[in-house]
Write a structure and sequence with these properties.
- The structure is a single chain.
- This protein is an alpha/beta fold and about 270 residues long.
- The protein has one domain: Divalent-metal-dependent TIM barrel enzymes (TIM Barrel, Alpha-Beta Barrel), CATH 3.20.20.150.
- Helices cover about 35% and strands about 15% of the residues.
- The chain has 9 helices and 10 strands.
- It has helices at about 15-25, 45-55, 75-90, 105-120, 150-155, 165-170, 175-180, 220-230, 250-265, and strands spanning about 5-10, 30-35, 60-65, 95, 125-130, 160, 185-190, 195, 205, 235.
- The strands form 2 sheets. Strands 1-2-3-4-5-6-7-10 form an 8-stranded parallel barrel, surrounded by 4 helices. A two-stranded antiparallel ribbon has the order 8-9.
- It is globular, with a radius of gyration of 17 Å.
- It starts with a strand and ends with a helix.
Length: about 270
């Protein structure tokens, strides 16, 4: 079971990568997921391998470069370069979104091209992450739509289930998992307490809170995963605020340990 738990570097994206590796190790994690951003350290396979070796942790997954960082070009270029980085790191999984906020045509493009993307990434396994309720950045007042429910995600071959996104989409965790269980290889694990986004009145904010700080039935969900015989990865993906990272390393370690122990307690 320990080999199924990982920590996403996105949980401490406000810290340097070297510090993240050290904190992950001190917090009891043996596996991590890298989320590359605009900083060169997060894009350098030689440096990432060096940090992994120094801290005796395994890089199990790579999250593709997200659109927010404004680097690596359009989605085609970002997926291609993320694929190359994943292969150089020899990770087991490459995470790619099933949607992009700023590109309404991305949804259909990724569905049409998923098999080609999967083939190009081999032997790395590509998993496609479920969306929250979507919105149009150019029309933020447009009513929300409930795209990418479980029935929409069934169109993908391999799936990453993000619990916070399921919560933001106001869907049931266990129903979502059961519908897609044979395709889910990876889980982004966090709590959520959806609230109206301050800049988009018709959109709920995706929050990625530490376990117990939101309203999702995570204990019940973890027990269900165990009972169902889930064998994939559970990557804890939080936001720095939810683990009080601004208060320093000791507080971050304490709260990341709690998150790991939460998963271990109910997924055992």
């Amino acid at each position: 079971m320990k080999n199924q738990i990982a920590l996403s570097s996105g949980s401490l994206y406000t810290y340097g990568l070297n510090r993240f590796f050290e904190i992950a190790k001190k917090s009891g994690y043996s596996q991590i997921e890298i989320c590359p951003d605009s900083r060169f350290d997060t894009q350098d396979p030689v440096y990432i391998k060096k940090l992994a070796k120094q801290n005796k942790v395994k890089v199990i997954g790579l999250h593709y470069m997200m659109e927010f960082f404004g680097v690596w070009g359009d989605h085609k270029s970002r997926i291609e370069k993320s694929t190359n980085l994943a292969k150089k790191l020899k990770v087991k999984y490459l995470v790619i979104h099933s949607w992009e906020y700023s590109d309404p045509k991305y949804d259909s493009w990724i569905l049409k091209n998923q098999k080609k993307i999967i083939r190009k990434a081999e032997p790395v396994k590509v998993v496609f992450e479920n969306s929250t309720k979507s919105y149009d950045m150019e029309k933020p007042d447009k009513p929300r739509t409930n795209r990418f429910e479980a029935k929409e995600m069934e169109k993908f071959d391999n799936i990453l289930m993000d619990t916070s996104h399921v919560g933001t989409a106001e869907l049931n965790l266990i129903d979502f998992f059961d519908t897609l269980a044979d395709k889910i290889n990876y889980i982004h694990f966090s709590d959520n307490n959806p609230k109206i986004h301050k800049d988009r009145p018709n959109s709920l904010e995706d929050r990625h809170l530490a376990p117990g700080k939101g309203k999702l039935p995570l204990e019940k969900f973890l027990r269900h995963l165990k009972k169902s015989g889930y064998k994939g990865i559970i990557s804890i993906e939080l936001i720095p605020d939810s683990i009080e990272a601004e208060k320093g390393e000791k507080m971050a370690i304490k709260n990341l340990q709690k998150a790991r122990e939460f998963v271990e307690k109910y997924f055992s």
